[in-house]
Design goal:
There is one protein chain. This protein is mainly beta. The protein has one domain: Jelly Rolls. The chain is built from two helices and 15 strands. Strands 1-2-3-12-7-10 form a six-stranded antiparallel beta sheet, with no helix packed on it. A three-stranded antiparallel beta sheet has the order 9-8-11, with no helix packed on it. The protein has a two-stranded antiparallel sheet with strand order 4-5. Strand 8 and strand 9 form a beta hairpin. Bound molecules: 5-phospho-D-arabinohydroxamic acid and zinc ion (ZN).
Length: 187
């Protein structure tokens, strides 16, 4: 398998999660409103703006057996009511594929939900933290700090993103601010 040499080496900035190459996806609040516990609160927000909640830049050097893809993400600080800004979250289409996340800057958590046992975990993801996302695990990232949260994630090239399964019913648990602290609660 030959790899395009222009994607062998890429530079990045850990505070902005900007990459010198890659495909950018930006999600604005209006697009992911149903990911939140109380989407109605978005309509009551005092601004007419539709802020960017997060941006991911993905690098896909090759698609052969054994290849890897990776992405850098940035989630801006913010909340909808008590719920922190978050990613949509997904399962991998190839359910058995795992992923490794590395926190680059800021403070946050990953919400991990096993699709078979429905067991949920809230694992810290900030600078200096690594989270291993096993296969068959829906994953969402949440910024609980007052600065952007940036992170790196690497996954098998065949993983694919399945937003439908989790989008229909959403995660069973939410991470909300309670008494000033990020707290895991039932939806
Ligand atoms: C990540 C995610 C990224 C954005 O690169 O794609 O955090 O989250 P959503 O894809 O749920 O919008 C990853 O897990 N890739 O597999
Ligand atoms: Zn993933």
């Amino acid at each position: 398998m030959t790899h395009p040499t222009d994607l062998i080496s890429v530079s990045y900035d850990e505070l902005t999660a900007n990459l010198s190459k890659g495909k950018i996806v930006e999600r604005r609040l209006s697009e992911i409103r149903d990911s939140f516990l109380n989407p109605d609160l978005i309509d009551k927000m005092p601004t007419d703006e539709d802020p960017i909640v997060y941006r991911v830049t993905a690098v896909e050097p090759s698609n052969g057996t054994g290849d890897l893809h990776y992405g850098l993400g940035i989630i801006y600080p913010g909340k909808v009511g008590p719920e922190y800004f978050l990613t949509k979250g997904h399962l991998h289409q190839a359910r058995e594929t795992a992923e490794v996340y590395i926190g680059l800057s800021g403070e946050g958590y990953m919400l991990l939900e096993n699709e078979k046992t429905l067991e949920t975990r809230m694992e810290p993801l900030g600078k200096g933290q690594i989270v291993y996302v096993p296969g068959h695990t829906a994953h969402r990232t949440v910024n609980t700090g007052d600065k952007p949260l940036t992170y790196f994630g690497v996954y098998p090239a065949n993983a694919g993103h399945d937003y439908g399964a989790i989008g229909k019913r959403n995660f069973l648990k939410v991470i909300v601010e309670e008494n000033g602290k990020p707290t895991l609660k039932d939806r």
